[in-house]
Design brief:
This protein is of the alpha+beta class and about 800 residues long. Helix content is about 25%, strand content about 25%. One of its GO terms (biological process) is integrin-mediated signaling pathway.
Length: about 800
């Protein structure tokens, strides 16, 4: 029986017949007749668990537990001093007599002078229930309406969680499988999954509200292709593990690149307003995958792809299975149309595109990245409820080991995420680049509708064992050894005539020709070729710089914009090339130098080839034979172009220009077109940047921080211009002060920065940095098993 406080203003009922009352009064008379002022924020509580034990509280802080009072009859006065807060509680016996004649105990807090009484006649004897026991209220989440849902369990502090669950199941008169059930602590927002821990060790006391509920619950996920799937997900596992299980169901390899995103309240409000204004209600087609082995909480298959990437053989014929069977065997997608995830579908209407949320400023883009869930906590701990809708997105823009044979779903979802980022202008691109993206989208949509594109069995299946043996044979024979030795001893260099452009604030740009020499990661320029043996006019170190293409193929403009970090910001320099080949070589060299690599790196020549192929797509001419009348073609250009350009040109003009650009990509296969679209997306200057509004230490104004796979960029929030760049390769360490929510990073050459995040929790940026560093440790020699502990060490918070 709990105490009855005099002049109490509020009461709260707890389990086990305990009443905790908080008293906040301005003046209470003392026994000596004095008047004492009290602190209105100070509370005093007392819990009486049985006749010989008390738990005394001051506010929400435990003062003393297990206060032994062996014999109430002989108690006259007792004083308990708090060793934490200096609060003194004094107890008197027989200070007052109740109307029924029963004895009471008076308790007075000498800090706030609140007083309470314990009626001895209503105390429960300890011999009735045993020593140190108390009642715990547990609510059971089940679907049987005729069966009670709340149960009172008589427990002790040394009872383990598994014992509580066993007692509970014995009291529930329902015969069913309880293996997926666990205890959820509502007040603490945590799962009690360590069944060998005792209640005392978990901190569970009589006022705890526990729920006995299932760990796997239904969740709606909106995929990058804007399709919604409904499946069972573990609400008790960390989000990192839950995403891994989801990707096994959806046949997406490299689950570490994805995560779950909760849309911000502002975006949801704007969507609801548009839905109210629309005349017809929006009906969403949902793919139900709740019967999959992984989502049902059972131990599913280790994945629907081989970890060693060897072919899966048909058990009947003994021949290697086709790619389609490899992707979708034992998957819930087998029973339904697998093309929902692996193939692109007819594009949305222009009206639907116009109604979607489109970020206009950097602040709007920062809102898109504020809702990433914490990968080190479970869904339930982050307030996600059953049947909520989340977005499944590629969070980390490092797409490792894309294999068309095994990654049909993954490639399509990356393509769709890139496509929507272009259409709603999450990422900026030029008009020429937009037409290339539109032509590739048009080509993909045409092939996706044709029956030939969906027949994967027509692909030539190559025995990977033979391919591996061939590679091993070449390696053992020492093929290309002379080239390897040459790459080690001789560092290539570029030397050519280029034009240098330096922007000036108060005058026109100065364009002058110079003799440029590119070696290692630096560019030097001289007055002419003959003076190249002497000292250069200037030497530019490109390590850590920003490289931005400045190209217009139709106007024969091939420029490279360099933003080089200096002490007071970024030094802006333009290089102008004469033709495509010269531009491709210098652009590839600049891109590698910005990453700290030289032209001796094996990725130099593939980079040159990629740039040339992208320029070739941009270089098209009108051919009357190849392009028919746009009016006779069933194409809506508004489905492939962002709103900015649809407002600028008429529909007929856009259709004609898209068909012109389509000539250069019309011979591509479906997968090749998607991969080319992804490569073009990756070549954009803003690719892979996630924006956050931050306040740097010592600064009086807000800035935007762009987080990419290899660098951090400080951006002026008003103009959008980059201020400075820091590479992850130069980073020594980073840490988070969780009390003031500040991220501090230390780089080489005694460069240190610190900032607080204003648009999101600093844990998100901390996880981004640790996540990208974790992904950089992957290699093709490893199997597909991830070091989950390492991920949580790099990304987990120490709060």
């Amino acid at each position: 029986m709990g105490p009855s406080w005099q002049n109490s203003k509020c009461k709260r009922s707890f389990a086990a017949k305990i009443t905790a009352v908080s008293v906040q009064v301005n003046e209470i008379p003392l026994f000596t007749g004095q008047i004492a002022k009290t602190d209105p924020t100070h509370n005093c509580r007392l819990y009486s668990f049985q006749t010989d034990r008390l738990a005394l509280y001051s506010g929400e802080n435990l003062v003393k537990t297990g206060l032994s009072l062996p014999n109430w009859r002989h108690l006259t006065k007792a004083t308990v001093k708090s060793w934490q807060h200096g609060c003194t509680l004094r107890l008197w016996r027989n200070a007052f007599v109740s109307e029924s004649g029963g004895k009471k105990i008076l308790i007075v807090c000498l800090s706030c002078f609140c007083r309470a009484y314990i009626d001895l006649s209503k105390m429960i004897s300890s011999s009735e229930y045993g020593s140190h026991s108390w009642e715990l209220l547990v609510t059971v989440d089940h679907q049987h309406e005729e069966v009670q849902k709340e149960f009172l369990l008589r427990v002790t502090g040394d009872l383990h969680i598994g014992g509580v669950m066993l007692k509970l199941v014995e009291q529930i008169k329902i015969s069913q499988d309880w293996s997926d059930y666990a205890l959820w602590w509502e007040q603490k927002k945590c799962w009690l999954l360590k069944t060998h821990w005792t209640l005392d060790k978990c901190g569970v006391q009589a006022d705890a509200k526990l729920f006995f509920t299932t760990q796997h619950k239904m969740l709606r996920l909106r995929l990058p292709n804007m399709k919604t799937v409904r499946l069972k997900v573990s609400f008790s596992s960390m989000v990192f593990k839950a995403v891994s299980d989801i990707c096994k169901i959806l046949n997406i390899r490299r689950s570490e690149e994805l995560s779950l995103l909760k849309q911000s309240e502002d975006i949801l409000k704007k969507k609801k307003k548009k839905d109210k204004n629309s005349k017809e209600p929006v009906t969403e087609d949902i793919l139900n995958l709740c019967n999959s082995p992984v989502s049902s909480g059972l131990s599913g298959s280790p994945g629907f792809y081989s970890k060693t990437m060897t072919p899966v053989y048909d058990p009947i014929s003994g021949t290697p299975a086709s790619s389609t069977i490899t992707w979708f065997s034992d998957s819930p997608l087998t029973e339904q149309n697998c093309s929902i995830l692996a193939f692109s579908h007819p594009n949305c209407s222009p009206e639907t595109l116009a109604e979607m949320y489109q970020p206009r400023t950097l602040a709007d883009k920062a809102k898109l990245n504020a809702g990433w869930l914490d990968s080190s906590r479970s869904l339930m701990e982050q307030g996600i409820l059953e049947d909520d809708q989340l977005l499944l997105r590629f969070k980390y823009y490092t797409f490792f080991d894309l294999n068309p044979k095994y990654d049909a779903v993954r490639i399509n979802q990356i393509y769709e995420q890139a496509r929507w980022a272009i259409l709603i202008e999450e990422i900026d691109c030029t008009e020429e680049e937009m037409l290339i993206f539109a032509a590739l989208q048009y080509h993909v949509s045409k092939l996706s509708l044709s029956s030939e594109a969906q027949d994967f069995t027509c692909e030539s299946e190559v025995d990977e064992v033979e391919a591996a043996l061939s590679n091993l044979e070449v390696t053992l024979e020492g093929g290309n050894a002379s080239n390897i030795l040459e790459d080690i001893t001789d560092i290539p260099k570029l030397a050519d005539n280029l034009r240098l452009v330096r922007p000036r604030k108060l005058s026109l740009k100065a364009i002058k020709p110079y003799w440029f020499v590119f070696k290692d990661t630096s560019v030097s320029y001289f007055k002419n070729k003959e003076s190249a043996q002497g000292e250069p006019i200037e030497k530019l170190n490109l390590k850590g710089c920003e490289v931005v293409p400045d190209v217009n193929v139709a106007a024969k403009k091939f420029g490279i914009k360099l933003l080089i970090p200096v002490a007071d910001g970024m030094n802006e320099v333009y290089l102008r090339c004469d033709n495509e080949n010269q531009y491709a070589r210098w652009m590839a060299a600049c891109v590698l130098a910005s990453k700290g690599k030289t032209m001796a790196d094996s990725s130099y020549h593939p980079e040159v080839h990629k740039i040339l192929s992208f320029l070739k797509m941009k270089n098209w001419t009108m051919s009357p034979q190849a392009v028919s009348d746009p009016e006779s073609i069933d194409m809506k250009p508004e489905c492939f172009i962002s709103l900015r350009y649809t407002k600028k040109y008429k529909s007929k003009q856009l259709a004609a220009r898209i068909l012109e650009a389509h000539q250069n990509v019309s011979q591509m296969t479906l997968v090749e077109a998607k991969l080319r679209f992804i490569q073009a997306w990756q070549s954009l200057p803003e690719f892979g940047l996630s924006y956050y509004i931050v306040r740097f230490k010592g600064s009086k104004k807000d800035d935007v921080l762009g987080v990419s796979y290899n660098r951090l960029i400080r951006i002026d929030i008003a103009t959008g211009d980059p201020i400075t760049t820091w590479r992850f390769s130069n980073m020594k360490q980073w840490n988070v002060n969780w009390e003031i929510r500040q991220v501090a990073i230390e780089f080489d050459q005694n460069v240190s920065i610190a900032f607080t995040c204003l648009s999101a929790d600093c844990k998100i940026i901390h996880e981004y940095i640790g996540g990208y560093i974790f992904l950089s440790t992957r290699s093709k020699d490893q199997n597909e098993t991830l070091d989950e502990d390492l991920f949580h060490k790099l990304t987990g918070g120490q709060e």
